[in-house]
Task: structure prediction
Amino acid sequence: MIPGLTEPYCIGDDTSEHCYQIIDTKISWKKASDICKHYGGNLVIIESAEEQKFISDLMKNIKFNVSGLWLGSDKLYPEEQRSWANGDKFSYLNWEPGEPNSHVIDENCVEIHTNDSRWNDVRCTELNGYICENSRT
Ligand SMILES: [Ca+2]
Ligand SMILES: [Ca+2]
Result:
């Protein structure tokens, strides 16, 4: 388990289980991704409204120091090649209104806001907390 804010929260059953852990240490996307991988998972990939709801419900119970948590994509641009870090296309979206806007050049990474659980594109060198996902199927 990663030293962090929360214990892993899991959903699923013996054959298919997803566990999430939220960490509110401020680090870059790459460092966050490396830590998740070191512990056998990856930065969270949100594939459905159900998964989004599970995560936003978790977040509601936490008092955050950070305003954003990294999600598992550093491949937002160019837009026609947009995908999660594992290459999967986005199957569900929860952007803030007006996002993604690539406001600063190369807003290639995705954060989820801790106040409303909506997504924003942001530079990968910004410092955020993060959510790791470990899947077992
Ligand atoms: Ca997932
Ligand atoms: Ca943005």
About this structure: The pocket of calcium ion (ligand 2) is lined by residues 99-101, 103, 107, 120-122 (CB under 6 Å). The beta strands are 9-12, 17-27, 42-43, 68-70, 109-113, 119-122, 128-136. The chain has a mean pLDDT of 92. DSSP finds two helices and seven strands in the chain.
